[in-house]
């Protein structure tokens, strides 16, 4: 009887011991395991908070600049050639239309969402029988494309030194279609006429407004429409053009916005505390972000591009 009791007692002790090991591994975590779990949970929580904060910051940045509902006016962008270069203007314009028909024009536009809604050429308006054939250009000819070196998204120098922008890509596509060589001739915008007249370039193709310059150039095709507007911080007290009175307004030299404020909109400009003229809109936008100026007079495509880059 004692032997049976001893065996029973031993069996119970073994069962208890096994149960104790199982309990230790599954229901009663050690201090180090608990600490590790807590740290992991905290890290996940911090990461989630960081992601949410970044998303909030991005949203705030995207909405930090807006255009006034009132604009300064609408304009047409075309390709400007030297007076008398009608044949060259006709050939380039024909190639642009051919690129509309084969889809290249829209394809390039898709890469620049700030521009695509302003593109004005459609296949329905084009007579294919009047266009130059693909590869019909002189293969020994190099077309020299003159453009503003800092006018995104139309034309600009990229960080790696290469050229980019809608106008640059469209011009390159024209040269490829005709079988010409392509040469980029970037310049400060206020030097455009000097460069063209010195024959450093064959055209000015860089968000170039036709209105008011009709007799100064031989004009190629109008390929985009645009609107000149006023860009301000979203939290600005400037809500209308009248609110610009007593404010410092920036503008790029030799642009349509500048011309408007010196001519058709001079009465408005006379109410400003200062019309501050910049070499490029990039510099003007940096001053707007820094609070050095109150607003910028700029075309909406270029302004939208600068806003998107501020995100």
List keywords for this structure.
single chain, 311 residues, alpha/beta, D-Maltodextrin-Binding Protein, domain 2, nine-stranded mixed β-sheet, 12 strands, 43% helix
Please describe the topology of this protein.
Blueprint: H1 2-26, H2 31-62, E1 65-67, E2 73-81, H3 86-101, H4 104-110, H5 113-116, E3 142-148, E4 150-151, E5 155-157, E6 163-164, H6 166-178, E7 181-187, H7 192-197, E8 203-204, E9 218-233, E10 248-252, H8 256-262, H9 266-269, E11 274-278, H10 281-290, E12 295-299, H11 300-309
Parallel strand pairs: 3-7, 3-8, 10-11, 10-12
Antiparallel strand pairs: 1-9, 2-8, 2-9, 4-5, 5-6, 9-12
Report what the structure shows.
The protein has 311 residues and is α/β, with parallel strands linked by helices. The protein has two domains: 65-71 and 228-309, D-Maltodextrin-Binding Protein, domain 2 (3-Layer(aba) Sandwich), CATH 3.40.190.10; 74-227, D-Maltodextrin-Binding Protein, domain 2 (3-Layer(aba) Sandwich). Helix content is 43%, strand content 21%. It has eleven helices and twelve strands. It has helices spanning 2-26, 31-62, 86-101, 104-110, 113-116, 166-178, 192-197, 256-262, 266-269, 281-290, 300-309, and strands spanning 65-67, 73-81, 142-148, 150-151, 155-157, 163-164, 181-187, 203-204, 218-233, 248-252, 274-278, 295-299. Helix 3 crosses helix 6 (166-178) and helix 4 runs antiparallel to helix 6. The chain starts with a helix and ends with a helix. Mean pLDDT is 85; it is low at 1-62.
């Amino acid at each position: 009887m004692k032997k049976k009791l001893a065996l029973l007692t031993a069996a119970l002790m073994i069962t208890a011991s096994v149960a104790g090991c199982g309990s230790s591994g599954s229901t009663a975590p050690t201090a180090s395991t608990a600490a590790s779990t807590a740290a992991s949970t905290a890290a996940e929580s911090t990461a989630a908070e960081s992601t949410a904060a970044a998303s909030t910051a991005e949203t705030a940045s995207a909405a930090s600049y807006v255009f006034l509902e009132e604009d300064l006016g609408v304009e047409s962008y075309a390709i400007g050639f030297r007076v008398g270069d009608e044949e060259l203007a006709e050939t380039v314009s024909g190639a642009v239309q051919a690129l509309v028909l084969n889809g290249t024009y829209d394809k390039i536009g898709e890469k620049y969402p700030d521009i695509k809604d302003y593109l004005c050429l459609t296949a329905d308006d084009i007579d294919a029988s009047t266009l130059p054939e693909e590869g019909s250009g002189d293969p020994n000819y190099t077309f020299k494309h003159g453009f503003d070196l800092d006018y995104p998204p139309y034309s600009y120098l990229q960080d790696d030194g290469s050229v980019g922008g809608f106008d640059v890509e469209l011009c390159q596509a024209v040269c490829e279609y005709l079988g010409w060589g392509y040469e980029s001739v970037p310049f400060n915008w206020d030097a455009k006429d000097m460069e063209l007249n010195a024959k450093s370039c064959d055209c000015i193709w860089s968000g170039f407004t036709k209105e008011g310059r009709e007799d100064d150039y031989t004009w190629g095709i109008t390929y985009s429409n645009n609107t000149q507007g006023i860009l301000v911080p979203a939290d600005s007290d400037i809500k209308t053009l009248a609110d610009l009175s007593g404010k410092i307004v920036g503008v790029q030299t030799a642009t349509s916005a500048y011309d408007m404020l010196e001519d058709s909109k001079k009465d408005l400009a006379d109410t400003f505390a200062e019309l501050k003229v910049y070499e490029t809109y990039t510099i003007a936008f940096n001053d707007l972000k820094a609070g050095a100026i109150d607003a910028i007079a700029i075309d909406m495509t270029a302004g939208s591009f600068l806003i998107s880059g501020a995100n």
